[in-house]
Amino acid sequence: MNLDFSDDQKYLKEEARKFFEKENALGSARTTLENKLHTDENLWKKIVDLGWTGITIPESYDGLGLGHLELCVLAEEMGRTLAPIPFSSSVYLFTEAINKFASEDIKQDILPKLVSGEVIGTLAVTEELNAPSSENITTEVKNDKVSGVKIAVPDAKVATHSIIVTKSAKGVDLRLIDHSSNGISITHTNSIDESRGHFSLAIDNVSSKLIGEEGNGWECYERLIDQAAVLFSFEQLGGAQASMEMALSYAKERYAFGRQIGSFQAIKHKLADMYISITLAKSNSYYAAWALSTESSDLSVASATARVSSTKAFQFCSKENIQTHGGNGFTWEYDCHLFYRRSKLLSVNLGSLSNWKNRLVTGLEKSNVS
Amino acid sequence: MDFNDTKEQAQFRKKCRDWLEANASLKAEKSSKSDFNNNDYLQTAKDWQKKKFDAGWAMLHWPKEYGGIAASPIERIIWNSEEAKFDVPRGIYDIGLGMCGPVMMQYATEAQKERYLPVMAEGKEIWCQLFSEPSAGSDVAGLRTKAEQQGDKWIINGQKVWTSGAHYSDYGILVVRHDPNLPKHKGMTFFFVDMKSPGIDIKPIKQITGGSSFNEVYFNDVEIPDSQRLGAIGDGWKVAITTLMNERLAVGDANGADVNEAFKWAKGQDDMGDKLIENMAVRESIADWYCEANGLKNTKLRTMSALSKGDTPGPEASITKIVSANKLQAIGNFGMDSMDMAGMLQTEDSNVHDFQSAWLGAPGLRIAGGTDEILRNIIAERVLGLPEDQRVDKGVPYKDIPSGK
Ligand SMILES: Cc1cc2nc3c(=O)[nH]c(=O)nc-3n(C[C@H](O)[C@H](O)[C@H](O)COP(=O)(O)OP(=O)(O)OC[C@H]3O[C@@H](n4cnc5c(N)ncnc54)[C@H](O)[C@@H]3O)c2cc1C
Predict the structure, then answer these.
(1) Contacts for A293 with CB less than 8 Å, ≥ 6 apart
(2) A:293-322 residues touching chain B, CB 8 A cutoff
(3) Which ipTM value was assigned to this complex?
(4) Distance B71 CA to ligand 1 centre (A)
(5) Residue A198: which H helix or E strand, with range?
(6) Options 2.40.110.10, 3.40.190.10, 2.60.40.420, 3.40.50.2300; which CATH number does A121-215 get?
(7) What is the pTM of this model?
(8) Would you tell me which CATH number, out of the four given (3.30.420.10, 1.10.540.10, 3.20.20.70, 2.40.50.100), belongs to the domain A7-116?
């Protein structure tokens, strides 16, 4: 019985924590947000040099050939410092899609470039002010040419490629496009979390390559987000823990009515509730990490369980961290709002909390647990 | 990460399993209900304990001389998880073996340990915990029951309350006030007491469930030999705290209707023409309970992982009772709601019964062994290191502390 990371994985986590601290990733998240820089390219370069963009890419494609558990520990540390980089878009979603579903030709072309940093990818799904589904996608592919408009695509500016979820003759396709192709215009849209840029993609008759099979795009997308949800849940867990730690140290330092605010029971119980939500999220994320790394048949339920628990934990801890900080918590100067913003981004990026709850129960129905 | 037993663990599990299969039957859809006020059931529980004891399973982590097999923490967990799959009586020895045993182990004389511990493990003598008083529950150090020393014995006068199982217990652990002039935490002393002693009067208390598992226990000039004192005079609080620490381990998961029962029910139950499981509000609740139930299960696995590597587990298990007792209450509430007005009726239907007993029993679980609020204080102070509450009763002689009802 061992529901824990190995010593090597813990060492990697420790190294990652030191790295993000040394690089002042949190400070960079603020700079990126305030100046609408969309991403910290310098930090990203260092991450590429560390080989982290190739963690799960097999050695035959120049990657490190490690497993998803290594990715989980990195995700938690990135979440902790709100690192302003396209890691989730490029690694959890784009790389995984190529690795899992693309043809050998595409893999040989793209995977080594993801390792070297030459290629950065993102996934473009959303089109309207509602949750995407296999029914409401209007971006279309005809004779390998894609046309349509995608909105709220994270990291699209720094990305060199996208995978576009499109409608096709056979249903839904995943389509790879190169951002240097003719017919693409990428426009920045202001968003709630400017520490990661969000863009709309106007795509007009742009050449594309099929990822997966024709018509099975939605199925691939679902499998992709089952996996990615585990990694997102680790980022959320990291963010939740950082929010709780901020609240905790403020509760010990700040005085009111002649005593530390952390001696008031309303504040103590708030922090105890944060601890409870984090403990549940952490334990469920660990289990989901195991399910992901072993491609367990209950991955779908396990990832939804982790996802729901971590979304709740990060949302709760980030909002109550503001509350614990009182007036200071509402100022731009304090970092509380950076976590609040990121908690929102991470909770909608793969679909909302209520969607995931529904997905969890659907998973239970399918697996026929009774 | 992996979920497999090591070779030794697998062998041990098989040993547990083989013995259990030979001596008990697996849990069926509807397992026997525990009712310790029913004499037959009490006897069944005692018989099962004796059977386990004879085979070495009763208190397997205890040293051999007191009836255990000196099992490691991980082996104990393996045994518990296997035993939980069988339809056997559980619960009646939780207080005695979970709290009274360890305190005896730590503070009793060698001769006392030899006399009491094996018999306790065997299940022949049942023990209870006499801590709470009408004016001292969460604040158990506020207790008033008086102890006066007379030569080599003590005379006890006062009242305990909410004492689980006092009516079928043979012994109890007792904390009392020997000096009201001292500050409250200093003036207490700890004993164990024969429940058949003259002057002890036990009155059952009717609970909101309609049943009576706890009691008022009156002490009128009850004599306790000084040899039954545990710890020094004035060390009562220290000894009590050791016991309460064990209580927190013993009082864990709230038993009863859980997410699987709720899910199964929702799949079968009609909801104005649809199945109840199609109702989005219900789906949301089921998802929440599933996350809580599995969060606790996986937290346990993390604790086991630490033990299995020989590490000390972190404080994560401290969330168990708050989460599970509240979940139990919510699930009971859901089940009854789902039957509309019929959910009110006390019928023979076992589904109705399970949800109702969850709903009626959970409030007690949120109080017993540390209320939700006290447990949050403990997480905040001991786990997160927040400052203690400011108190008005520290350092003040006990008799000068304000007390209300
Ligand atoms: C089913 C059951 C079995 C029990 N079995 C036993 C037993 O075998 N032996 C035994 O000795 N006792 C037993 N008890 C008693 C139990 O330990 C106490 O009821 C419990 O500790 C609460 O104490 P109280 O009832 O005095 O409530 P109080 O302490 O008066 O609490 C009332 C309310 O005030 C809150 N409160 C009190 N202090 C604080 C604080 N510092 N901060 C925030 N909120 C606070 C509480 O959370 C609660 O909501 C049992 C109780 C139950 C329900």
Answers:
(1) A67, A68, A69, B1
(2) 293, 304-305, 308-309, 312
(3) 0.95
(4) 34
(5) strand A198-207
(6) 2.40.110.10
(7) 0.95
(8) 1.10.540.10
